[in-house]
Amino acid sequence: MLTQQILQILVDQPVENIIDVYGWVKTRRDSGSISFFEVNDGSCQENLQVITDQSLVNFDTEIKKVSTGSSVHVRGKLVSSPAKGQDVELQAMEMELIGWADPEVYPLQKKRHSFEFLRTIPHLRPRTNALGAVARIRSCLNFAIHRFFKERGFFQVHTPIITTSDCEGAGEMFTVTSLSLDQVVGETGYEHDFFGRRAGLTVSGQLQAEIYAQTLGRVYTFGPTFRAENSHTSRHLAEFWMLEPEMSFCDLQCDMDVAEELIRDLVSIVMKECPQEIELFNRFIDKGLKQRLQKTAEEPFARLTYSAAIDSLKSAEKTFEFPVSWGMDLQSEHERYLCEEILQRPVILYDYPEKIKPFYMRMNDDGTTVAAMDVLVPCIGELVGGSQREERYEKLAERMDDAGLNRNDYDWYLDLRRFGSVPHSGFGLGFDRLIQFVTGMQNIREVIPFPRTPGSAPC
């Protein structure tokens, strides 16, 4: 029986119950001939207290060996607890040690461990309170995303992980090859490779999602993406998860509306469905977390143009590491200052300079900006990046030429503008950054089960 279910039994059936519990021992303490165990099966934040005594036949031979990290099976009577801070406890009638954890070498003893240390044991770190809570929140938000789009008539599309198109044009793709390194860099070339041309791990499913948006109307893709960027910041990973909706007959205003509605909906759901986990993070990680999430869920986001944001930053009484000027790509310090100090809430910036945005974004009538938007949130900075896509063939072709892209490589993408083109928009939401935002975790490595970063790929 799950701990989560057990904690509701006395509410639904206020009588003594004989139940079976399987889980792992979080802590134990002894008081004379009685031993108290905190057991958890991972289904919720709370532990279940199990009480054993010498009346159990294996108390001396087995139960005394049970230590933190051990797995156990307990059969006993669930009763109201007289102890402060818990509603129920389990009086053991039988207790079986399933898997022993040697206390001399088990690394997760009852003390606070740094997140840096926990990264060295990725196979055990989910057993900690914080990382277990992250996993449950991640699962909750994953399901909520699919529910959000299903309720609004979107279709999910599985875009390829192996691709020949560099969506961002930044040249930071991991190469996928069946050739040896000598063959790749030598005379053989990629024409003799598995796919007959250079291929890599996707940095975005956007371009392929656009294909289906112009058939099914509203689609989304959600999966792992990869970027070979040698970045060691607290916001970047080499492998990360992206949510990318694409919508036909949707302009920039529509794009911003969907992004804001999505974020506010997801924050509301995680506060409702994971209250214990949010309370944990609010107490031990970020004491202003609950208030910030409540504000995000309830209040409309601010919206202003990139140009207006630059003016606000220039007039701010703060010296930035990177001086502010029109045409620059905003840094995290600028994004966070806008959210946390000037506007004090999430903000959507739009109409960015054409020079700092990818080729597929729609050119505005002024000829210098594109219909792009970013959603910025406190403590994180950019959470969402999106745009109205360029649906005009000639304009798109010009942007591709300016970016130095070979039109032949994107002939299929140009075809979408030749045959029944329509206005369409979309965005990408960094799922791992969303987890950071709702947990208050400072480093993105703590919110993904197995972080891949430069020089590190454990498990």
Can you count the helices? 13
- Looking at CATH, the homologous superfamily of the largest domain is Bira Bifunctional Protein, Domain 2
Average pLDDT:
92
Q: Give the CATH class of the largest domain.
A: Alpha Beta
Look at the helices and sheets and give the structural class: alpha+beta
Helix amount: 25-40%
Largest sheet: 8 strands, mixed
Distance between the termini: 30 Å
What CATH architecture of the largest domain do you see?
2-Layer Sandwich
Overall description:
- It is built from 13 helices and 16 strands.
- The longest helix is centred in the N-terminal third of the chain and has 23 residues, at about 130-150.
- It has helices spanning about 5-10, 115-120, 130-150, 180-185, 205-215, 250-275, 275-285, 290-300, 305-315, 330-340, 395-400, 410-420, 430-440; strands spanning about 15-30, 35-40, 50-55, 70-80, 90-100, 155, 160-165, 175, 200, 220-225, 240-250, 300-305, 345-355, 370-375, 380-390, 425-430.
- The strands form three sheets. An eight-stranded mixed β-sheet has the order 6-10-11-16-15-14-13-12. A five-stranded mixed barrel has the order 1-2-3-5-4. A three-stranded antiparallel β-sheet has the order 7-9-8, with no helix packed on it.
- β2 (about 35-40) and β3 form a beta hairpin.
- It is of the alpha+beta class and about 450 residues long.
- It has two domains: about 5-110, OB fold (Dihydrolipoamide Acetyltransferase, E2P) (Beta Barrel); about 125-445, BirA Bifunctional Protein, domain 2 (2-Layer Sandwich).
